[in-house]
Specification:
Elements: E1 3-11, H1 14-25, H2 30-37, E2 48-52, H3 59-65, E3 73-79, E4 82-92
């Protein structure tokens, strides 16, 4: 069964999400940005969600996590919770 590990950060607006993504692309540390800006409890772990399989996260999340390149920041991804930046840290098919 497929599984993946990922980290994310969650913010309220697409504008904020894009701003944080730009900072990460310019060298800011993903984990630090998650700790400072994310509204998800995972921010305490730098946004680390651990390992999970298909169907354990919302569909918008699954679509990105199980198709995007590993170690590349993806987003903004809109869900009912807000706007996410996602980074797949490992994946096994």
């Amino acid at each position: 069964m497929a599984s993946a590990s990922a980290r994310h950060l969650l913010v309220a607006t697409e504008e904020q999400c894009n701003d944080i993504k730009k900072q990460i692309e310019e060298g800011a540390d993903f984990a630090k940005m998650a700790q400072e800006h994310s509204s998800c409890p995972s921010k305490a772990q730098g946004g680390d969600l651990g390992s999970f399989g298909p169907g354990q996260m919302v569909p918008e999340f699954d679509k990105v996590v199980f198709s995007a390149p590993v170690n590349t920041v993806q987003g903004p991804v809109k869900t009912q919770f807000g706007y996410h930046l996602l980074e797949v840290t490992s994946r096994e098919d």
